[in-house]
Amino acid sequence: MSIFLQGLLLGFSAAIPLGPINIMIMTAALSSFLRAFAIGLGAMSADVLYLLLLSFGVLEYLQNELILKAIGIFGICYLLFISWLIFKGANAQIKLEKTLDKDKAQFAKNYFKGLFATLSNPYTIGFWLSVATLASSFAGYAWVMVAGLITAIGLWITLMPLAVFKSSKLISPRVIKYMSYSCAVILIGFAISLFYNIFFNLNI
User: Would 39 disulfide with which of 85, 114, 125, 199, CB 3.0-4.6 Å?
Assistant: First the structure.
């Protein structure tokens, strides 16, 4: 149980800090819980994929400067693209609220947003390699720690967007629009920060 709790705490410590995925989830949750949950689910799927690559020893081969730069460049472009989509759709979010929740295509679209945003973040690779180092200290119980970690991420991508969505009902459409604009600007800031770290201060 203590190992599971350690994994749980590690998962929350990784999921809660403000980052591109949380910004995307919060922006989507202003108009639709389902869209926000889909983004979070996509991000968690990317984490599971990296975990599988780690278990097969593939993830270590991605710790190459050239590969990390390639992943990072894609991540920068993708964050800028998402920012543009948020700017473009800020006025339409409230109007589309009811139809988006019923549209399976929109769920899939947002799922892949979260998936690609996480896969294209080179820091995710470093995180899972760090987890591997920690998990190895638990010998045959490493899976218990990983289970706690995945549970924490799953709880966060469910409860956080639900709280934002419920709170958004108390906020005026005008305020929500400017909140969306702010989130888009923050994502651009993350893209600029990633660009700097990749080309001038590579420490991934």
Answer: 114
